[in-house]
Write a structure and sequence with these properties.
five-stranded antiparallel beta sheet, DNA binding, LytTR family DNA-binding domain-containing protein, LytR-like, DNA-binding, alpha+beta, about 220 residues, LytTR_DNA-bd_dom, 5 helices
């Protein structure tokens, strides 16, 4: 990951997170960038290896976004971490981790603003059926509207509640509340039938995590 990519990621993150959020960006082995906050500072330095048990380590190990309380034995202080793997052509290249002193009581905003033609529409998260990667933007589908969000799927995933939204494919995130049926598919994968009739694949990469998350 080059400095320009890190700068672009930080510009996006600054728009969403409050000032008391520490941000860490890593590749698959070590931290590349760290911005501490006044509320919580893990004393990470670029080049430090990713510690086992940290939020970044969990996200990279599971290949999935995680939100977790991290015990003080990892960095010496407790924190609440939200981390998401950075994907490129289906391959994990690193992770972005937001570090909070405690679990946020209300996470950012409950809306996603999508563009349809020349207008913008705020959509409540609980109205979203699924999100799909399309041409470096994110296609957002609801029962009544569909449009595009300017962030790509991996960037946008960090701002979605993990108890409602789940990554099932490198190109798809679905709202669990809108899954109507889960069908077995070839090679131990699944096919999701959404309540609007859309058929969405669960790829082999995400199948095990998907089963564990939904308990079947």
């Amino acid at each position: 990951m080059d400095p320009k990519q890190i700068e672009e990621i930080m510009e996006i993150i600054k728009e969403f997170f409050p000032e008391n959020t520490s941000i860490a960006i890593s590749d698959t082995n070590e931290y590349l960038y760290y911005q501490p906050s006044k509320k919580v500072d893990l004393k990470i330095k670029p080049g430090d290896p990713i510690k086992e048990g940290s939020a970044a380590h969990k996200a990279l190990s599971y290949g999935q976004k995680i939100s977790s309380y991290i015990e003080p034995d990892v960095f010496g202080i407790a924190y609440y971490g939200m981390s998401i793997p950075l994907m490129e052509e289906g391959e994990t290249k690193g992770a972005i981790t937001a570090i909070f002193p405690q679990k946020p009581s209300a996470f950012l905003t409950n809306y996603i603003t999508i563009k349809i033609d020349d207008c913008w529409y705020p959509i409540k998260h609980d109205q979203v059926i699924y999100l799909e990667t399309q041409l470096r933007k994110t296609f957002v589908k609801t029962m009544s509207r569909e449009g595009y969000h300017r962030l790509n799927l991996s960037d946008l995933e960090l701002f979605l509640a993990p108890d409602s939204f789940i990554r099932c494919h490198r190109s798809y995130i679905v709202n669990i509340d809108y899954i109507d049926e889960i069908q077995p598919d070839s090679h131990s994968t699944f096919l999701l039938i959404m309540k609007d009739g859309t058929r969405i694949p669960v790829s082999q990469r995400y199948a095990s995590y998907f089963r564990r998350s939904l308990g079947f």
